[in-house]
Every structure is written in structure tokens, then in C-alpha cells.
Amino acid sequence: MKRAIVFGATGGIGQSICGELAANGWSLYIHYSHNQEKADLLAEKLTKQYPMQDFLTIKLDFLVSNQDLESFCFSLLPINAAIFAQGITHFGFFGEQELDNFDQEMKVNLLTPLKLTKLLEPILLRYDHSRLIYLGSVYGGQGSPLESAYSASKAALSRFCQSYAREVASSHLTVNCLAPGAVDTAMNSIFSEETLNEVKEEIPAGRLAKGDDISYWVANLLRPESDYLTGQTIYISGGWLV
């Protein structure tokens, strides 16, 4: 069986992950929080390209109650991989942030993924070569000014992967974190072209990452041959901030 759920599937990286996995024979749950139209269009496109596979859209707000999370997981068909590609940030000085911003970032980036992991564990442990992959950030290794809470959430995610991987390694469930650097997605569209060019000059590879640069590694981690790689944070940064 090859069925995965991609959380945050409508984002720039999430869409690339869905395309890469579909091309590798995976059926997918295409998760969205608010943008149903984009999720439906992605599912329709992939169904036309790969008619022998299933592409199901599924909604979940990462700020819902524990009971809603339990109901969500109970409704799923069997899966043997979960990829957490969702994430939010509130750019600005820490002292000027609203307190609700901290709650949202921690829930979306860290707490709800951990809760979903706990709920999905019994499903994933039924199958060989099961996988958990989280999208961290280069800022989880080196904190970013003006994104302090975001950096904290991503750093915690890496440490969780390291710890939890050791608990389930003997069950052949691998747990890894992919930590991109600056990626050409909507999250970075708030910055001016001048600012982005300055960032590019700091990156040894000379460019921002594309979604495909990240999805390539997701696909490789899902291969059965990757069974021995677990508990790692893999930085995909073009040599930036490492």
C-alpha cells in the first residue's frame, strides 16, 4: 500500500510534494485548512494524470479541539506516510507581537502536528516502511530575528523528531525533519524584490529554493531503502546558515 496524507498540501511546497509523490505511485489525502478550491483543483489535476491512484481532499483547521483531531484521524483510510508541510509565521519584533500570534504559531507548527502524530501512530505502525516527515526550517538551527516564536517552534520540532524516532525505530517507522532555507513561496512574498535579492547573495547556491528542491527529498525518504535513516534534521538550504 502507498497512501500518504500531505498536510498543508495547498501551499507552494505542499503542492510540489503532492506532484512528486503522485508521480511515484502514491495515492494521497490532500489536506487543506481554508483553500478548498485550490485543493480540489490539485486533486482533479492529479486524478487526470494518474487515474489508477486516489486523490482525496480533506479539511482540517489546525486550531481545532482535541476531540475534532480524534474524529479527523478516525475518519481516515489506512495510510503509511504522513507529511507535515503546513506552517505559519508572524514577521515582526517579538515585543510587538499579539499574544494570540504565539498560540497560533505553536499550535500550527508544533502542537497539533505532535497530537496528530500520537493519533496516527497506531495506523502507521501496522505497515512496514511507514514514514513521518515534518517540514522544519533552517531557522530551527539558527534562530531568525523578527521570527523568534517561529524559530522556537521549528527548533522544538527537530528535537521532537530526534526523540520520538528513538521510541519507534524498532517498529520500522522512521521520523525525520526536512529543514528548508529560503524558498520561493507565498510565505516569502511579503518581502520586497530588493530584500530577496540580498538573501540570494547570502546563499552560496545563489538562488532561493524551489518546491521541487524539497519534494525530491520527501520522495526519497519515503522509499523502502531509507529505512535506516531516522531521527534526522536534513537542511536543504543551498549552503545558507549551516
From TrEMBL:
Domain of life, per lineage: Bacteria
Biological process annotations from GO: monocarboxylic acid metabolic process
Residues spanning the signal sequence: none
The family annotation for this protein states:
Belongs to the short-chain dehydrogenases/reductases (SDR) family.
Q: What is this protein called?
A: Oxidoreductase, short chain dehydrogenase reductase family
Q: What is the lineage of its organism?
A: Bacteria, Bacillati, Bacillota, Bacilli, Lactobacillales
